[in-house]
């Protein structure tokens, strides 16, 4: 049964309920629109078993989702942890069958290019407003690797650029191949990052990154840029907490996934004074709860 049919079925039940109330006592006739609305909102939860499909538990978006659960008094709801890949797999499965699903989402992300999706409105501000992606380096990076530091300071690109790399990778290309293809088509942008910087001879630099498609895209692009500048680049995939810890304790040099000021606020506070905010690589990014556009829901408040 498609979602559309399910919604119509629930509407028929609501109409039958109102009809029966009209035939009953005056007390029953006091039933107002608020009760009908509550029934509709509860049915949304029932269609997804009161579950929100999330990603890895250490991600900032998961902390924001826990905050939303409290802010909107969604006591009956649970957030299912997993990974970015598991979340998108669940989304694809539901979307292909036009079934209801609610996921933690962020943009830029390739799923917005693949599917018709929308963010649920967040009147309580649990997920904050527009965010930025920052490049975060270990203390002393500018002294030890000044050429890399200069390039990272200039690193800045648009959501459309990142989406191009993400979509090609999700369509089957290896991330490094998708990254190289983007570099080949955007030599002018890359040249702006490296302009005036001398090449090095085998200096080592270590990136840490999380398995978010957005971060995989940016890390692979920058790794190839620095390799072309003579660096020996190491990339280590970890979860969000260990990613920030590695840069803060100096066991890694750089992360390209500093979502600020909300998503990674906990790590910024925890490691204050132990890292350098090198620069902003992207603006107007966003996190929140995401649903397919075929779902008849517009706000997180509708989950109550």
UniProtKB/TrEMBL annotation:
Arranged from A to Z, the UniProt key words for this protein are:
Cell membrane, Membrane, Signal, Transport
Protein localization: Cell membrane
According to the UniProt entry, where is the signal peptide?
1-21
Please list the residue ranges annotated as the ABC-type glycine betaine transport system substrate-binding domain: 44-185, 204-304
Per its UniProt record, what InterPro entries does this chain match?
ABC_Gly_betaine_transp_sub-bd
Ranges annotated as spanning the membrane: none
Q: Which domain of life is it from?
A: Bacteria
Q: Which PANTHER family does the entry link to?
A: GLYCINE BETAINE/PROLINE BETAINE TRANSPORT SYSTEM PERMEASE PROTEIN PROW (PTHR47737), GLYCINE BETAINE_PROLINE BETAINE TRANSPORT SYSTEM PERMEASE PROTEIN PROW (PTHR47737:SF1)
Q: What is the name attached to this protein's record?
A: Glycine betaine ABC transporter substrate-binding protein
